[in-house]
Fold:
Amino acid sequence: MRGWRAPFLATALLLAPPLAARDASPLAPAAGSTERAAIVEALREHPDMRFTFRYLRVWHDGDRAIAYAEGDNGVIGGFRSILTRDDKAGWHTVWAEGDGGSDSCAAGARHYAWAVTLIASYRVAPDRLFPGITKQTREFERMAKEDPDLQCTGDLEGGPA
Structure:
């Protein structure tokens, strides 16, 4: 009776449909890994800058990859950044929000909506890479409708032109 479990489980796993990419979770690159070092270097604006990450997640989609980093950089303060890498090219920041300054909720809504679309283009659920991004986007949209002049985001960089 015991002998049937292992072959049954192996067969069930082989016949099970693959986990959809949008349902899989991005992973944090290991401390000391080449990938993590390359992401940190792409984020670094000053040679002495040190990072404390709340989130650092990477999703690979074939020859390209997308990363989300959130934390504190020790110089300017809190930040949120999206980086991309294509083929063998290095990582570069394509979207960011920083603590300093302020921008309108309408600009924030556009900025975040652009990021949601970008992340989804990598075949990963946006909230799996960037926790809470869809809820934050809807909140900025709601706030912008209520008061178009309201300032509710930090400095916005990259994103929509």
In short: Residues 23-154 form one domain.
